[in-house]
Design goal:
The chain is α+β, with helices and mostly antiparallel strands. Helices cover 44% and strands 18% of the residues. It is built from 3 helices and 4 strands, in the order αββαβαβ. It has a 4-stranded antiparallel beta sheet. It starts with a helix and ends with a strand.
């Protein structure tokens, strides 16, 4: 298997684990933390919450500088961004760094 395919499979695996971790945390995080961001380190499942995406990612990268980190806004996009002037109804609001 070449490196590019291997990297894609590894990132997909990390993404899947991180999404599963978020689902286990959902009832603990929502609605109290809605609107904040969560960064999840996929291998360990450790997570970091910040007011901004950058803050959550920076917290994660301090502990795991070389890790792939999954980050998303906590809560439903419709619940936290409905009144934003640039609101677009889209459920694809997760990122990896």
């Amino acid at each position: 298997m070449n490196n590019k395919i291997s990297s894609t499979i590894n990132i997909q695996s990390i993404l899947t684990k991180a999404q599963q971790k978020y689902e286990t945390l959902r009832s603990e995080l929502e609605p109290r933390q809605n609107g904040k961001y969560i960064a999840i380190e996929g291998d360990s499942g450790n997570y970091f919450i910040g007011e901004t995406r950058e803050e959550a990612v920076n917290k994660a990268k301090q502990k795991y500088p070389k890790a792939v980190v999954f980050v998303r806004r906590i809560g439903s996009l419709e619940k936290v961004a409905r009144n934003s002037p640039s609101y677009i109804s889209n459920t694809s609001y997760a990122r990896i760094f």
